[in-house]
Amino acid sequence: MKAVLFDLDGTLIDTAADFVRIIQNMCRTAGREIVAADLIRTQVSEGARAMVQLVYPELDSQDPVFLQHRQRFLDLYAAEIAVDTDLFADMPALLEQLEANQIPWGIVTNKPRWLSEALLKALALEQRCAVLVCPEDVKQTKPDPEPMYLAANKIDIAPSEIIYVGDHPRDIDAGRNAGMYTILAAYGYLPMQYKDDLNAWQADCIVANVTELHDQIQQQLRLN
């Protein structure tokens, strides 16, 4: 193995607290029941539509009113993108070790580029990240392997020599479909409907926390 790619939200970066704050504030503003933080956390990987639907479950996702609420959510998030967000605990040490050993690391995400770039800039990661692949860069997003192949091409490393880490079945499917070594980040924002049987995801490895992830990556990369 010669490189490591990460999903973004719930795998590399712990963004849930900002989403929880914004969604719960939207509930208060609308005079609606406050959505539980744990429920919001399970929907982060499903995107903005899924989180806003927690506030307005009666609205169709294509309803113009719903789309207005979704845009308001995105605007609020963009304005306060890293208030309570940071790398997961122990992740800085992992990234520093990769960099010290000249192992490129990057991101393949379904998060829009304008938000992904803003988040990386807020955390001073934009220059450290070797590659960032977002939905706008491809015709087919995860679980299709196209974004994985694009990332591999950009860092000039064969997919079979890349580790991909994610917290959603589509992450693992995309990695497997591209022939990468896949690690399921069970510490992440696991969707409620998939969290009861993690073995069914068919990842090469499951880790419960970033310490275990660090150990597994060290083994795969043969780092000391």
What is the makeup of the main sheet?
6 strands, parallel
Net shape: globular
Mean pLDDT: 96
Can you say what the CATH homologous superfamily of the largest domain is? HAD superfamily/HAD-like
User: How much beta, percentage-wise?
Assistant: 5-15%
Q: Judging by the overall fold, what is the CATH architecture of the largest domain?
A: 3-Layer(aba) Sandwich
Describe the structure.
The chain is an alpha/beta fold and 224 residues long. It has 2 domains: 149 residues, HAD superfamily/HAD-like (Rossmann fold, 3-Layer(aba) Sandwich), CATH 3.40.50; 64 residues. The strands form 2 sheets. A 6-stranded parallel sheet has the order 5-4-1-6-7-8, sandwiched between helices. A two-stranded antiparallel ribbon has the order 2-3. The two termini are 14 Å apart. The mean pLDDT is 96.
What's the short version?
The protein is α/β, with parallel strands linked by helices and 224 residues long. It is built from nine helices and eight strands.
SSE blueprint and pairings:
Elements: E1 3-6, E2 13-14, H1 16-30, H2 37-43, H3 48-55, H4 64-79, E3 86-87, H5 91-100, E4 105-108, H6 113-122, E5 132-133, H7 146-155, E6 162-166, H8 169-177, E7 181-185, E8 205-207, H9 210-221
Parallel strand pairs: 1-4, 1-6, 4-5, 6-7, 7-8
Antiparallel strand pairs: 2-3
